[in-house]
Each structure stands twice: as structure tokens, then as C-alpha cells.
Amino acid sequence: MRILLVEDDPALGRAVRDFLAQEAHAVDWAERLGAARACLPGDYACVILDLALPDGDGLTLLPALRKLVAPPSVLILTARDRLTDRIRGLDAGADDYLVKPFDLPELAARLRALARRRNGRRAPTIEVDALRIDPATRVVTLDGRVVEMSAQEYVLLLAFVEHPGNVLSRQQLEDAIYTLDQGAASNVIEVYVSRLRRKLGRDAIQTVRGHGYRWGSAGSQQDGEGGP
């Protein structure tokens, strides 16, 4: 998913960004509140928010986040470990609170839990027709057979199955894969959609001409190309 990381510690910021990139997340990193506000709206699924920032308290960003058309989940990541701080942060609108120091795998697990709640899922795995996705291991199976995927293909697949029935534009799909400082080739989405169709079936992703793509049905007419 697309994440905004607001953290002023350079070493910690790099560690979190690089780790989450390995977990197939697209992470934009802001080291100041002002830089974080400049990233909005950004179509973020989650914001990882430090509180003690050089230009103010991270909690002051929460009102702006709540006003977005699709407000992201917010995970506070801070050294403030008092009970009153945790209560204040959660009551201000945060969805989770993690105290430094922390383990990166725990952060990843909390992000998966936030994604489940955000998408209305209770089960740890995603199952659509014959397709099964395990976000914890990033293993994808179709009819019980493991389907090998690149990180970009996996992220694109998640974008589709987490928005069933929705038409996703090229820009939305690029935003799911690339951070603000990465450029996307003009036909990159078409390339990845074509690869997913070859692996999951040509009807897995439908083309909505002039608008984008939407999820179809995995396993149908597999190894084909095209789609409606």
C-alpha cells in the first residue's frame, strides 16, 4: 500500500522506508510537518506519524488527514511512552500507537492489521474466487498453485482485489507502485496488467476504455491476453 512516513530521524527514517519497500509498500518520507502537508492528499492508505517533529507536534497533522476525501489510517510512531500520551494520540484520531524502540516486523504486522480493518476484512488472508493472497508472506495461489509475482505485480494485484468493482485509473495504479521521487514509464501499467493477465487469466483484469481497469475474475481463460 501507499504510505506516508513522517519521521525526522534520518537513520530511522531510512530504515523504515527501506524495510517497508521490501514489504512491497510504496513509501514517501517527509522529515517535517510542512513537507508532510505538501504531500497531501497523496491517496495514502496509511500515515506513520512521529510526534516530536522539528516544526511542531505531529498530532497537529491529524485534522488535515481527517478532512481528506479518503482519510488514511494513522499509526503513531513515537518515543512518548506515557499512558496519557497514548490516550491523547488515540483520542485525537490515530488508529494505532507504537512506541520506540520497536521491531520492524511488528510495524509491518500492525500495518497489515490496519489494512484489514480499512478494507473491512477479518481474515488474515484475501480470497477472491480461486485466488488466495497471504499479505504476511506475500504468497499468491490460484486453484492451490503458487503464482510467482514481482513486487510491482503483487502491489498492483492488491490494488485491484482491495477495490472490487471499482475502476482504477492509470494514475491511481502508478501511485500504488511508485513513490513521489520515482518516475513511471508511459506504458508501465499496461505492461504489468498484461503480465497479471498471463498469470491469472485474461479476464482477471478488465479494461474500461478511457477510464482505467477493474478486477474481473481470476482463473478464467488463463494464459490469454486482452480482456473486455
If you had to describe this structure to a student in words, what would you say it looks like?
It is a single chain. Helices cover 36% and strands 21% of the residues. Mean pLDDT is 89; it is low at 221-228. With 228 residues, it is an alpha/beta fold. The protein has helices at 10-22, 33-39, 62-66, 83-91, 104-118, 151-161, 170-177, 188-200, and strands at 2-6, 26-30, 46-49, 52-53, 56-57, 73-78, 96-99, 126-128, 131-134, 139-142, 145-146, 205-208, 212-215. It has 2 domains: 2-118, Response regulator (Rossmann fold, 3-Layer(aba) Sandwich), CATH 3.40.50; 126-215, Arc Repressor Mutant, subunit A (Orthogonal Bundle), CATH 1.10.10.10. The strands form 4 sheets. It has a 5-stranded parallel beta sheet with strand order 2-1-3-6-7, with helices on both faces. The chain has a 4-stranded antiparallel beta sheet with strand order 8-9-10-11, with no helix packed on it. A two-stranded antiparallel sheet has the order 4-5. α6 crosses α8 (188-200). A hairpin with a 2-residue loop joins β4 (52-53) and β5 (56-57). It has 8 helices and 13 strands.
List the topology elements.
Layout: E1 2-6, H1 10-22, E2 26-30, H2 33-39, E3 46-49, E4 52-53, E5 56-57, H3 62-66, E6 73-78, H4 83-91, E7 96-99, H5 104-118, E8 126-128, E9 131-134, E10 139-142, E11 145-146, H6 151-161, H7 170-177, H8 188-200, E12 205-208, E13 212-215
Parallel strand pairs: 1-2, 1-3, 3-6, 6-7
Antiparallel strand pairs: 4-5, 8-9, 9-10, 10-11, 12-13
